Amino acid sequence: MNSPISVSTLNTQIKSLLETTFINVSVEGEISNLTYHNSGHIYFSIKDEKSTISCVMFKGNAKYLKFRLEVGQMIIISGTITVYTPRGSYQLMCSKIEPSGQGALALAYEQLKSKLQAKGYFDQERKKKLPLLPKKIALVTSPTGAAIEDMKKVATNRWPLIELILVPTLVQGESSKFDIVDSIKYADSLDVDLIIVGRGGGSIEDLWAFNEEIVADAIHNCSLPIISAVGHETDFLISDFVADIRAATPSNAMEIALPDINENRIYLDTFINDFEKILLNLVKNKEVELKNMYKLFEQNSLESRFNFIKEEIKILKERFHSNFNQKIQNHQSRLNLLKEQLKFNNPKNKYKNGYAQITINNKLINLEELKPKDKILLQTPKTIALCTVEELKKQ
Predict the structure, then answer these.
(1) Which segments does the entry list as coiled coil (predicted)?
(2) Residues with Cβ < 8 Å from 24, sequence gap 6 or more?
């Protein structure tokens, strides 16, 4: 029988055996009992349908983890077995973790996209409108990349009046996300109209800084409109969803941000032609209106009024004289008629020997009109006889 050993000795021997035997293992399992510690370490377990093993990922390795661990998630762990001697317990110390069946970057991308969407970072209502005619644009990009040259070329051809302010920025590498955040904050403090954040194409790893949450926060909190122009047309980054406008490429960002000077020249020519036509028609209409007003003024001037009144007086005088003469003529005609009647009816003018004028009630009457018993006056210039008709004979 072997001599007994202490518990510490046994645990030490087990530790030596396990840690030298399981130096680099790869294990697949489902996450449970997950804890993100304030220290930056991650404690959890992985399990299958029969067993469970404790795991730890220390801060030094956890900072390189691209996605966030979640309970129930299937993962593949690369690491070593370690033994905690005082308790005689062992655990899997993780150096690398990948999602099972899915790339870590792809999962991290979807996790962050869902998180920011839930926070309203992608809402159209919060997106700012781009200025119609920007005067200054801040470019948050690398000073040595092809993107800056492409943007300068497009800007020169499209709108030479624009002033571009370069904010030199690291756009690739582990520390680039912090530099991008600082550059966005600095650009936001400048006297510019909008900001373009971007870089040329590359692998998903090269572009990953634009998928970081702190970059998304910086874009969301910026007071100026931001265009995200990262990679190629097929690349969609988190910055594209958060920014006010997404451009397919850096060159396309300039096309979106700047008006086309040639289109504006055509517009101005058309505007000038339309303005000249409108002005010419306006002048012609005003000339006609002025002529009509002049005629109206002439018609209503004092001279015109005096002439009109003089003409009216003349017409009234002519009408008065005409009416007066007409009345005189009418009265003269009546007088002449009365004179003729008087002359005709005057007994002196009608008197002949053996003839007398017959009247009844001072009305001259013919002999043929008399009836028996009529009282009549027979009158000559010198004598009036009152008579009664006794008898009438017709011949």
Answers:
(1) 299-341
(2) 78, 79, 80
The DSSP code sequence of 15-67 is: HHHHHHHSSSEEEEEEEEEEEE-TTS-EEEEEE-SS-EEEEEE-HHHHTT--S
Query: What letter does residue 374 receive in the DSSP assignment?
Result: -
> How far is it, in rounded angstroms, from Cα 184 to Cα 195?
8
* 364 beta partners: 359
User: How many CB atoms sit inside 10 A of residue 66's CB?
Assistant: 20
- List the beta bridge partners of residue 379: 357, 384
List the 163-168 sheet strands across, edge first: 163-168, 136-141, 194-199, 226-230, 245-246
Nearest-angstrom CA–CA distance, 18 and 49: 24
Helix (H, G, I), strand (E, B) or coil at 230: strand
Pairing of strands 89-99, 136-141: unpaired
Q: How far is CA 262 from CA 26, 162, 193, 354, in A?
A: 62, 15, 22, 129
Structure tokens, 14: 């087990």
Task: Give 195-239 pLDDT, tens digit per residue.
Answer: 999 999 888 888 999 999 999 999 999 999 999 999 888 888 999
Please report the sign of the dihedral spanned by the C-alpha atoms of residue 175, residue 176, residue 177, residue 183.
Answer: positive
**pTM of the predicted model, to two decimals?**
0.57
